[in-house]
User: Fold this.
Amino acid sequence: MTATEQPLYYAEGRNIHKRPIEKQVEGGKRITIGFRAAVATKEVGDEGAQAIAGLMNQGEKFEALLDTMRRIAAADPAHSQFAALVISEARAAIEAATGRAA
Assistant:
């Protein structure tokens, strides 16, 4: 697995970390530092921390998908109604699953 294929969040023991991000920009490279994002309780343990990191990665992917759908809706009137419907349904699903607004 290359650095670009590694998940953004990962667990080491009960510690859940966000990986540093390197991005090429005009004239160089921009690096965002990594950090410990959370610590699972002893009851949750190492295996639970792995699951939490996986869920956090899924959340990042979902947010990227919603951002893409918003850009499509804004840029292409022919697809905006469909994109708006998908975004609305996704937000409702998040709220139903988590009890919080997306």
